[in-house]
Amino acid sequence: DKLVYKFSEGSRDMKPFLGGKGANLAEMTKIGLPVPPGFTVSTDACNEYFKNNGILTEQLREQIFTALSEIENATNKKFGDPSNPLLVSVRSGAVISMPGMMDTVLNLGLNDETVQGLARQTSNDRFAYDSYRRFIQMFSDVVMGIGNYMFENEMSRLKEEYQVTEDTQLNSQALQDLITRYKQVYNRETGEEFPQDPKDQLIMAVKAVFNSWNNQRAKVYREIHNISHELGTAVNVQTMVFGNMGNDSGTGVAFTRNPSTGEKNIYGEFLLNAQGEDVVAGIRTPKAIKDLEDEFPEVYNQFLEVSQLLENHYCDMQDIEFTVENKKLYLLQTRNGKRTAAAAVKIAVDMVEEGVISKETALQRVEPEQIAHLLHPQIDPDQDFEMLTSGLPASPGAATGNVVFDANEAEELKNIGKNVILARPETTPDDIHGIVAAEGILTSRGGMTSHAAVVARGMGIPAVCGCDEISIDLENERMIINGQNINKGELISIDGGSGKVISGAVKLTDPGLNEESQKLLDWAENIKQLGVRANADTPSDAAKAREFGAKGIGLCRTEHMFMGSERLPKVQEMIISESESQRKEALDKLVPYQEQDFYEILKIMDGYPTTVRLLDPPLHEFLPDREKLEQELNNLSKDEIDEEALEEKKQLLDKVKALEESNPMLGFRGCRLGLIYPEIYNMQVEALVKATKKLLAEGYSPQPEIMVPLVGHETEMELLKDSIHEIIDLHVEAPEEKEIFHVGTMIELPRACMTADEIANHVQFFSFGTNDLTQTTLGYSRDDAEGKFLAHYMQNDIIPENPFMILDQAGVGELVKIAVEKSKQVNPDLTRGICGEHGGDPDSIKFFHKIGLHYVSCSPFRVPVARLAAAQSVL
Ligand code: ADP
Ligand code: MG
Ligand code: MG
Question: Are residues 731 and 805 located together in one domain of the fold?
Answer without folding.
Answer: yes
